[in-house]
């Protein structure tokens, strides 16, 4: 057990407020935990939803940050697979029951007892150090630099999971809605999986880069009439959109047997038209991050295929400016916060 010294963090004290320097006394290092010196944090739009308590679940003080890469500095006595100096990543999920059928299949993201995540009073990566259960940390492959690896730990796994699940064969027609942190990685992963990819964006200036990421086609997001050329053509549509839009139009993009998968989490609801749903055998599904099985696989897949996010870096001390940039849809395409 290490001597407890305070961890220096950035915290939100009340909903909607800016983050401010804040310190906390960590609990003693448990036998199955490691301590990490944080070096990099990807900034996810979820950190903004959480700051603003958009989903009504945030506990304050909130130390956000769930795309964390750092170096192991302390190792609990029962941890055998990691040692000091290892470069590891931490994502959204911090623990699970490990005994339910989903956990036993590596789907801790849908643990029947509910996984332990950032939203239940755990402190995240916007800090100099972090103590976490070692079983929910991931060695970063040598082929991935830390700044590129950080966004994979949430954005990467969140899009990898539905793409890996629903792309059944090369040539599957995939639409990606919203070309932000998640969306640009979805284009890269889908392309690497052999899909024919259409990028849907409200931002006209993203066309060239969407194609550089691997999209075969770019479609400016619009009304059903404006997008009628693609209506009824896609086998899988993944929505990474963080705000309200016309979901009826998203549904209308599906071909028969098509799947509309939501990973973006606006506070919204759907009114699915049953006639086309039934007669076209279509599905509307959701997907949340991913379990440990897909996390390990995704990191390996990214390393082998050199799938890296396009990032801009800022110091962690500028986390508020960085959040404003993401909220204004001005990040291109993931901000990675560097610890000083
Ligand atoms: P982001 O970088 O801000 O990207 C979101 C994109 O959505 C924007 O770049 C924009 O793309 C599009 N968009 C924004 N406002 C829009 C509007 N009013 N109408 C249509 N499109 C709009 O955010 P992110 O970090 O990728 O996260 C995206 C969402 O996924 C967030 O809601 C986040 O909480 C959620 N998320 C879910 C999971 C999960 O497990 N399910 C995990 C991580 C994140 P264009 O400019 O191309 O239109």
TrEMBL record:
Matching entries from PROSITE patterns are given as: ADH_ZINC (PS00059), D_2_HYDROXYACID_DH_1 (PS00065)
Q: Which Pfam families match?
A: ADH_N, ADH_zinc_N
Q: InterPro entries attached here?
A: ADH-like_C (IPR013149), ADH-like_N (IPR013154), ADH_Zn_CS (IPR002328), CAD-like (IPR047109), D-isomer_DH_CS1 (IPR029752), ER (IPR020843), GroES-like_sf (IPR011032), NAD(P)-bd_dom_sf (IPR036291)
Q: Which SUPFAM superfamilies did the record assign?
A: GroES-like (SSF50129), NAD(P)-binding Rossmann-fold domains (SSF51735)
Q: Which residues form the Enoyl reductase (ER) domain?
A: 16-337
The catalytic activity of this protein is classed by the Enzyme Commission as: 1.1.1.2
Cofactor(s) needed: Zn(2+)
In its UniProt record, a GO molecular function of this protein is: alcohol dehydrogenase (NADP+) activity
Query: Which key words are in the record?
Result: Metal-binding, NADP, Oxidoreductase, Zinc
Concerning its family, UniProt says: Belongs to the zinc-containing alcohol dehydrogenase family.
Q: Which PANTHER family match?
A: ALDEHYDE REDUCTASE
Q: What is this protein called?
A: alcohol dehydrogenase (NADP(+))
């Amino acid at each position: 057990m290490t001597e407890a010294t305070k961890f220096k963090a950035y915290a939100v004290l009340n909903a909607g407020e800016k983050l401010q320097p804040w310190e906390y006394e960590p609990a003693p290092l448990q036998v199955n935990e490691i301590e990490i010196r944080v070096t990099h944090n990807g900034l996810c739009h979820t950190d903004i939803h959480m700051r603003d308590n958009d989903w009504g679940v945030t506990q304050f003080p909130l130390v956000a940050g769930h795309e964390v890469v750092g170096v192991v500095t302390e190792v609990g006595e029962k941890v055998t697979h990691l040692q000091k100096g290892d470069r590891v990543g931490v994502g959204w999920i911090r623990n699970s029951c490990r005994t339910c059928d989903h956990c036993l299949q590596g789907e801790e993201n849908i643990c029947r007892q509910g996984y332990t995540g950032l939203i239940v009073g755990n402190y995240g990566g916007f800090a100099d150090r972090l103590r976490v259960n070692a079983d929910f940390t991931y060695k970063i492959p040598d082929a991935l630099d830390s700044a590129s690896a950080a966004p994979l730990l949430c954005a990467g796994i969140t899009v990898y999971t539905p793409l890996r699940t629903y792309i059944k064969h090369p040539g599957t027609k995939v639409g990606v809605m919203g070309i932000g942190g998640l969306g640009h990685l979805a284009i890269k992963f889908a392309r690497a999986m052999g899909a024919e990819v259409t990028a849907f964006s409200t931002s006209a200036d993203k066309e060239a880069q969407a194609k550089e990421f691997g999209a075969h086609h770019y479609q400016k997001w619009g009304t059903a009439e404006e997008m009628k050329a693609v209506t009824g053509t896609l086998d899988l549509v993944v929505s990474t959109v963080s705000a309200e839009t016309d979901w009826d139009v998203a549904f209308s993009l599906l071909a028969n047997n098509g799947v509309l998968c939501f990973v973006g989490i606006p506070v919204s609801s759907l009114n699915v038209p049953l006639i086309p749903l039934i007669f076209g055998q279509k599905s509307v599904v959701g997907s949340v991050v991913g379990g440990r099985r897909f996390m390990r696989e995704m990191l390996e897949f990214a390393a082998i295929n050199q799938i890296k996010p396009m990032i801009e870096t800022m110091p962690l001390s500028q986390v508020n400016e960085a959040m404003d940039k993401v909220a204004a849809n001005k990040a291109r395409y993931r901000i990675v916060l560097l610890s000083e």
